[in-house]
Amino acid sequence: MTYDVGMTVIETRSPLNRDRIIDAAVTFADEHGAEELSMRKLGSELGVEAMSLYNHVANKDEILDGMIDHVFRAIPLPDPEQDWRVSVRTTGLAAMEQFTAHPWVVSLLMQRGNFGNSSLIFMNQVLGILRAAGFSDEETHHAWQMLASHTMGYAFQQSSGSWHEKDWDGLENQLSRLGDRFPHVVALAPLLGHCEFGSEFAFGLEIIINGLEARLG
Amino acid sequence: MTYDVGMTVIETRSPLNRDRIIDAAVTFADEHGAEELSMRKLGSELGVEAMSLYNHVANKDEILDGMIDHVFRAIPLPDPEQDWRVSVRTTGLAAMEQFTAHPWVVSLLMQRGNFGNSSLIFMNQVLGILRAAGFSDEETHHAWQMLASHTMGYAFQQSSGSWHEKDWDGLENQLSRLGDRFPHVVALAPLLGHCEFGSEFAFGLEIIINGLEARLG
DNA sequence: CACTGTAAGCGTACGGTGTAAGCCCTGTCA
DNA sequence: TGACAGGGCTTACACCGTACGCTTACAGTG
User: Fold this and answer.
1) Distance, in angstroms, between A5 CA and closest chain B CA?
2) Are A91 and B91 in contact (CB under 8 A)?
3) d(CA B32, CA B24)
4) Cβ separation of B110 and A149 shorter than 8 Å?
5) Strand D: which positions are within 7 A of a protein CB?
6) How far does the CA of residue A14 sit from the closest CA of chain B (Å)?
7) Which long-range contacts (CB under 8 A, 24 or more apart) does A172-178 make?
8) For chain B, does the N or the C end have fewer beta carbons within 10 angstroms?
9) What is the pTM of this model?
10) Helix (H) or strand (E) holding A164
11) Are B125 and B80 in contact (CB under 8 A)?
């Protein structure tokens, strides 16, 4: 934004920068999905040509990494003062909340790995809590893997989307058309189709926490 | 393969068909990764032009679905006569084995959902075992979600690959360069880097089976 | 004031993608 | 022999990420 003082106000577009680009990419992905995001579309979203983005980011991968980082930064860090079970529970739910709000991170994480700054901060905090709780290094490792898998797994299923209401009716027709070849699937179809992933996730999280606790000592 | 009987053997390429195309796609993805697969490359792999594939498949999506189906068909179905804990354990490990052999299915499943024929057969079998074991429909649903999440989650982490040996050295340098900002990550780095996903998966699977068993009755 | 160096934005172009449309060759059957 | 059908090939289109070079705007000097 530049002003000619005393003259007419020249309304130039606010200058581009990395953060604005990544923010725009995140909201674009939230609206249209990450696989729809292209440099040209992102540019036009910012009122700018595609190639102008390359003045602020090295390439598209840097944008994608930035988007992942953006999401991880939004997960509140667990409080090391609390009981580890509480920390793990609230952090798991918080992470799940972000993965639900930005379903595209899951596939992005799979393609690109997750070793941005924010995700390392997050991971470090959780590992620290587990170690402080008395887990050995091996046990901490097991616990982390398990918690991460559980979280990513549910986020995965939620974002893989075929169980969602959208094409659910079509699927139901398909299933009933397949008749009794899949009786158990058909019987559980209503539950599978309209399930609340949040509470499903919490259910499993409790089992895992209890299981880990039993391994402690 | 056509022969001019009594004359020289005319060595024409064996005719294309859906199965050969999908098989070729699977082996190509095993070698080069699924994101490298393109219609042109797949065609040239089969000694054929890209557009010729469209005489046997509707589009690339049908090939991708076929690849998913191919992998699920390779998972041996659990035996309904066995104890459900044994069935769940062996089936989980068998599924994980396939996901390890074909790491690309995980991201494919996420993009496309998993409701091909083979995956429905597989799912139906597992659901049937859980119901026969005495789980209610809701409990069966919970158990399925949890087992699926655990399996997909580990497969996910395994295929997301950043923890693998390849770029592990670079990552280790990066971590030590980041100094003591992430002490817990650095401390556990060796475990995280060289871990055996198979046994990690089995460890978590046992916790889940025990947790589910406790819910039974 | 002019001159110059720098950075940001733009336009063009290249090689890649999936696939629609049309051509041609060949095998099969009347 | 002639017609037909189907499989493979070629061409073409719209999209992608991005390398390259041009133009404009501005900051710092003399």
Assistant:
1) 46
2) no
3) 12
4) no
5) 6-11, 15-21, 26
6) 34
7) A174/B115, A178/B120
8) C
9) 0.87
10) none
11) yes
- A23/C5 CA-to-C1' distance in Å: 32
DSSP labels, chain B = ----TTS----PPPPP-HHHHHHHHHHHHHHH-GGG--HHHHHHHTTS-GGGGGGT-SSHHHHHHHHHHHHHHTSPPPPTTS-HHHHHHHHHHHHHHHHHHSTHHHHHHHHH-S-SHHHHHHHHHHHHHHHHTT--HHHHHHHHHHHHHHHHHHHHHHHH-TTSSTTHHHHHHHHHHTGGGSHHHHHHHHHHHT--HHHHHHHHHHHHHHHHHHH--
- Give me A47's structure tokens: 């009122």
Backbone angles phi, psi at A106, to 5 degrees: -60, -55
Q: What pLDDT digit, counting tens, does each position of B153-181 carry?
A: 999 888 876 444 445 555 666 666 666 78
pLDDT at position A215: 85
